[in-house]
Amino acid sequence: MILTADIGNTNVVMGLMSERGKLESRLRFPTDKRRTVKDFMIGFEALVNMHHFDFSNVEGAVVSSVVPELTDSVVQSLRIKVGEDPVVLSNKLELGMTIDIDTPDKLGVDMIADAVGAINEFEGNLAIFDMGTATTCSVVNADRVYLGSIIIPGIVISQDALTAKASQLPFIKFEQPEHLIGRYTVDSMRSGVIYANAAMIDGLVDRIVDELGGPVTTILTGGVSILIKDACRREVVYEPSLLLKGLWDVYHMNHA
């Protein structure tokens, strides 16, 4: 089994994975840049003990972090608990794909993990939408070349901005609306969240198909994508564990 740590802008997700994409246990807590090495050690101990495992069952660890202030603390905590340095995801590792963009060092490692997970699951041209703090779309062609991305304000950020700036619009719970054309404010806002994002995905993929000159497999993962997938008119594949699968693949390609 391997330990995984996905340090995102909104949440830190720790996982204990027994096989590709299969979590034996998971812990999720808000990202806080004040967390210490000891805090993360306690988290990993709780994760491993959750199903009566111990660290003798753990062969190694892999880290994906878009919060540099926390990366060293997580790495140190894993070094202490596992007894060796974790694999820390970056564009410099063996990934099974070529990154062909102008600034590969600036590419988010979460997007790299998504792409690695996708190319080992699907063939052909891929458009990978990860709906988290930001909504990102990574485009990989059939030759396993990462061509670039599209970055959009995430659903939660957009909704928070809307309610903060429009005093008569309430905070809402993300749920399926009763109708496309809402008959009261909350349902109208839910319709905007669900159907506008689905239409965005449909429209962007249409344009990606035009640019690549061939069919594209559309993959949705992360955040509220489970609510969006059924509202899309294009065929989409929902892969909630895509990033974790990518971390598993990266670990096994790079662990000495």
From TrEMBL:
List of catalytic residues: 110 (proton acceptor)
EC number(s) reported in the record: 2.7.1.33
Cofactor note: A monovalent cation. Ammonium or potassium.
Residues annotated as binding ATP: 6-13, 133
Residues at which K(+) binds: 130
InterPro entries: ATPase_NBD (IPR043129), Type_III_PanK (IPR004619)
Record keyword Cell division present: no
Cofactor(s), names only, from the UniProt record: K(+); NH4(+)
Keywords: ATP-binding, Coenzyme A biosynthesis, Cytoplasm, Kinase, Metal-binding, Nucleotide-binding, Potassium, Transferase
Positions with a binding annotation for substrate: 108-111, 185
Gene Ontology MF terms in the entry: ATP binding; metal ion binding; pantothenate kinase activity
Oligomer status and interactors: Homodimer.
HAMAP family reported in the protein's UniProt record: Pantothen_kinase_3
Name of the featured protein: Type III pantothenate kinase
Native organism: Slackia heliotrinireducens (strain ATCC 29202 / DSM 20476 / NCTC 11029 / RHS 1)
